[in-house]
Every structure is written in structure tokens, then in C-alpha cells.
Amino acid sequence: MYEKSPTNEWISNVVRYRKFSGSWAWLLHRITGLGLTVYVLVHINTLASLQEGPEAFNAKMQVFMQPHWLFAAWILFGLVIYHTLNGIRIVIIDFGRGAKYHKQLLYGAIAVGLVVFLWMGYIIFFGHSDHDFLSYAVSFFS
Amino acid sequence: MKIKLRLFRYNPETDTKPHYKTYEVEADKKEKVLDLLHRVKWEQDGTLAFRRSCAHGICGSCAMTVNGENMLTCEALIGNLKKQHTITIDPLPSLPVIKDLIVNMDTFYQKYTVIKPYLINNNPPPPTERLQSMQEQRLIDESTWCIMCGACSTSCPSNWSNPDFLGPAALLKAYRFIFDSRDDGAGERLNILDHSDGVWRCRTIFNCVEACPKEIDVTFHLSQLKKAIVTREI
Ligand code: SF4
Ligand code: FES
Q1: What mean pLDDT comes out for the span B186-197?
Q2: Which of A54, A40, A13, A109 is nearest to B155 (CA)?
Q3: Which terminal CB of chain A, N or C, has fewer other CB atoms within 10 Å?
Q4: Does the beta carbon of B150 lie inside 6 Å of ligand 1?
Q5: CB-based contact A26 B96, cutoff 8 Å
Q6: What is the distance in angstroms between the Cα of B207 and the nearest Cα belonging to chain A?
Q7: ipTM exceeding 0.95?
């Protein structure tokens, strides 16, 4: 009888088996979950500098205000929003009747997530504290 | 049309590792993938081994991975496949291969025995039959369509990473008895399912639903089991 080692088999199956919307949702959930775990480490590392006094912390925060770190923050927000919305989708599947419309839930989550993601991009890159998107929209339409 | 059939081959007596062998067959879009396997075995290479019995989607013995997706080969119309000119057929994933496209399904069946797939009712049977209302029957109807083909459990990533996971097929059978109004074993079965290798390892990936040839919404049934576990009185 031919048997692959379970780990090899698992990885090659994940790579080779056809992916449907549910498989993508699951894979993305895992990948964003790993990304968030890495973020928590960075976050703790930043907070740890508080022990060295406000100057050390402020110096770190200054670094995070540079454009490429702002971009990273935006991507991080993307991970958070997907993980959150898909998490809600899973709760609806497990404890509601969501299994009956899991694809629609996923497309809805992606649509809502995309809007919020772009909005956050606007706030990060173009928003000023006295000029956020909402007041911009209000002044635009009035 | 001409079709290239790329088949997974493994002969335990001569091979240390499996390989693929390609056959060319003439076929019509209205034929089924099983017809192509027959054509190869009957006309080109009699050493090819695969399982099939009814050829009408009832016995559940012909499930294989066709173009990376589990299905019954006797139900799969060539015209419905995404890729038709080259068709790759593998044995069901994550089970040991006995020969060519035949897998050893022992563990798949053993998992059924874990969830006690039989009526548990210690009351003496009434003189005629244990009656069930239409509503009570409807609750379990879909879960009784299962033909135990194994397409769902072997398509499940949770099962690939953890071979001890009971898997969608056995869990669906558990549903079939737990929600049966004539059965009294719900409590003991839910205790078995309430385990890290039980229903909680279902990560709602829906590969089983996509694979099931009987179009059973397996994940929905598992979600009902999860709800039953968290809402039961202990
Ligand atoms: S639930 Fe569907 S895919 Fe799974 S064993 Fe039964 S018939 Fe086959
Ligand atoms: S041969 Fe019986 S289900 Fe395909």
C-alpha cells in the first residue's frame, strides 16, 4: 500500500485540490490570522519601549509615521477587517443558518470590507484631524 | 473529440512510488468519466485498477479526484468538466492507495462505528412500527441521502491535516441519528462529537458540500450539531 507522510500529503492536497469560494475564505482567514499574530509581536515590542520613557516611545512612533509604515498600517487594517468580517460570517454559519448562504455572506463581507478599507486609506493618507472623510462627504453634498 | 487521460498509476508489486500514465481515448461530450476509464481498461491496458459497481450514482464506489476535485466518475459528464482535453484522475486524497485508483477505506468506515450508527432505543417496539411524523422525517431526510462514497471526508482540509478528525461523512451520519425522533442516543453521541477531533474540527471550508454527489448541505448539518452541543443541558 502506498501512503505519503501526513504532512507532505496535507500540504500537497491544499495546493493541488480545486479551490472554491469557501476554501479561499478559509485560506485567507488563516493567512490574515498569521499576519495579525506577527503584528501583535511588533505591537508589544513598540509598547515595551514605554519602559524606557516617553522619548523612546515617541521616537518609535515617529518611525511609524513614515509613508511606507503608514502603508503597512493600511495593509494591517485590511487584515483586521477581513479577519473580523469573515469571523462574523463563520459565527453566522455555525450558530445561525449561514451555511445555506455562505457564498453570499462571503461576497457581502468582501464588499463591505473593501469599502471600509478604501475609506481607511483615505483617512490615513488624505485625512487631517479636522478634515475627516465624513465631514468631507457632508460638505461635498451640501 | 480526442481526450488525453492522465491516470495515477501504482502497482504495489513492482512500484516503490506512484507515477502518471497518459492514455489517448476518443470520447463524446455526453459520455461520463467512468466510460473513459472503461475504454482504457477494456481496450488499451487491462492492468488498470479502479472501483465501480452500479455506474448510476447509487453505490458510491467510484468516487475519485477528477481534475483536482472529488466526484463520482459515473456521474461526471465530460461536457461539464472545466478542462476537457486533458483529464487527470487521482485516487481519493489522504487515504492509502492499494492499487492505481483504489484506496483503502478502512479508516473511513471505522469513523462511522465511533458515532454509533444504529438505532438506540430501549423501549420495547410498538406492535406495528415506531411512527414518525412528516415534520420529524423532514428533519433528517437530507442526511439519509448519503451513499457513503467518501468524496466529502477526503476533500476536507481539516481531515488532511488531522487524519483522526471524524470527518463530514461520519458526522452527517451522527446527525441522521441524533435528530431522529425514534432514537434516544442523542446525549451519548453529542458527548462523542464534543471533542477536538469531533465536530469542532469542522472549519466551515465547504469542500465537502462542493464534493458531495448527492448535493447534501453537509456543513449545514454539522452546524446544527454544533448548536445542539452548546445548547444542551448537561
Ligand atoms: S455526504 Fe455526500 S460526499 Fe459524503 S459520503 Fe455521503 S454522499 Fe458521499
Ligand atoms: S459506480 Fe456506483 S456510484 Fe458510481
Answers
A1: 96
A2: A13
A3: C
A4: yes
A5: no
A6: 7
A7: no
